């Protein structure tokens, strides 16, 4: 970028009259060294004022046709503008009142400010005076700019701005909704206003009664008269900042012990708060929790439906409640530590603990006691069982029975009128009709499925005799009935027993249904099992019946005694137990130790019950005791090793199991074993019989387990065959590769007996297994494998 060239400082261009063309070389005074290469500007400062700089040569005379005379009268302004000489700032002291809501210290706060008025451009700046420890942001309140006059104070045009005329001592000026009262000016401002001819009143000074400033000053001064709470707070601050710790008082030690000993222990009381003296007040039932660890109290209000009040989780947060003195004043509210030491309470050192003498403790609580909690009166009328037990054991105080809080406050409970359900019209069940009456949407009655499943098949049977009525035509006392009561749905049925030459046909007297009985208070309820007692009289549809007796099954059901299992059930339990032992344990010693014989070298009743539970068998305690007694030869209540072998192998007791015992797979020992002195080598090689129906069942279970493991790994038949064989899918698989694949590739933790069973299935008579044979065994039903039908 090339700078513009100005006129030459020396020499002139060649005159035009010589007719020398302006070509390079014709201008002999065009010296490059005399050129000005700096950027030009159009403004310059002369005599303190910026003026335009002309780029025309001073000797230049424009042509005649360009010479135009301008005779316009333009007023000449002063050399310097007034704002350059009138740079004054007027300073006014002012304040405004800020309302404070929900504060125990003050209701209105005095905010001190300084209003700066700049005369050069009539701008206003408002700055709030700093106040130490005020806890609020201070500084510039309104930034410097022209402030429009408040609409309520306008006297001129719409664009009227705040000026000097609006500011003076004793004048209220509104700036953006805040009403400032000017109370003071400095000497320079006063002289300036008086020079303008404005009368300035005397300074008023700051108003008195600033509650917040007095509170801050009092807080800063009260070093030697701190209360016990403030001293405790000061103690924690000193420890946190400087690490200083004063001597721990005995009260503090006791308080720490109590905190750890009573951690989590809460005393719960129920209290009533009579708030009816206020408009829309009511009797409020509260729950008061007293925490023993730090003697704090929490007030809760249980939710009440349709009370018209929102649910409040905590009426009073957990805190210590000061005890009221006889003159109904708090124990130490706004009192100093020295004043508190004059009372009966004890203070060990200057760093005080929370005084127990001035707060509510567990000794102030009890049924019938009246508590004053922050001006609210609470009457304790009940407590929980845990609180009663604490007072009785720790304090030796019996709290007594609970009191009627409604009667204490003379409140009669309101009876809410409710419409009575209409009588049943006999169509359908009463539950179905009542459900349609209670709701607009018809829903089937709900059945108690838990009761139905628990009492399925349980029937109570009673023998009845009709009680003769006063106007009986026939001999009703000679009529006998059988009542059947179903526990699953509380329905009953009555059947009459026919008697010869009575003229009355026997049969169904009352069909199965639920029957209601009228109570003495006029209400009605369905008959339950506890309503049937031998010797009692029951009334069914205006007919009275006397219960004569009940059968043995009914006696057991009502007394809670379960029906003993039949001998066939005991036999089945023994058969299943033997099959599980043979399948899981290859040697008798392993089965004996697994059941529990490794503890005391014997198996007791509890060990046998636990073993049945591990097999997921439903075995009653009486059944397990029966099995134990069957094989307990010495009648000592336990089974030693010889008796356990007899239970597993089924020596003389196997004859009692009929065909079921003969079909089980037995764990047999070598013939030379005597169970009292046997060789260790023979003991470790107890063999399993591989013939009979039990071996077939073991083969089924082993194959099913192998299938489940393959299915859990989400593997296909061809993939399993290839992994077990270790070659192409069409190759033949031998027992060695099968055994190696199960252990090293598939990592199946199978027992040796289970592997041998699988080898018998996949490799019959030692033949190699093809993919087709392998697929047929895995994918066909297990009953069809090897003829296990």
TrEMBL record:
Residue ranges the record marks as coiled coil: none
SMART domains listed in its UniProt record: DM10 (SM00676)
Compartments in which it is found: Cytoplasm, Cytoskeleton, Flagellum axoneme
Domain EF-hand: from-to ranges: 619-654
Major localization class: cytoplasm
Keywords: Calcium, Cell projection, Cilium, Cytoplasm, Cytoskeleton, Flagellum, Repeat
One function term, GO molecular function aspect: calcium ion binding
Highest taxon of the lineage: Eukaryota
Cross-referenced Pfam families: DM10_dom
Stored CDD domains: EFh
The DM10 domain, residue ranges: 86-197, 263-395, 456-562
InterPro entries hit by this protein: DM10_dom (IPR006602), EF-hand-dom_pair (IPR011992), EF_Hand_1_Ca_BS (IPR018247), EF_hand_dom (IPR002048), EFHC1/EFHC2/EFHB (IPR040193)
Known role: Microtubule inner protein (MIP) part of the dynein-decorated doublet microtubules (DMTs) in cilia axoneme, which is required for motile cilia beating.
Protein name in the entry: EF-hand domain-containing family member C2
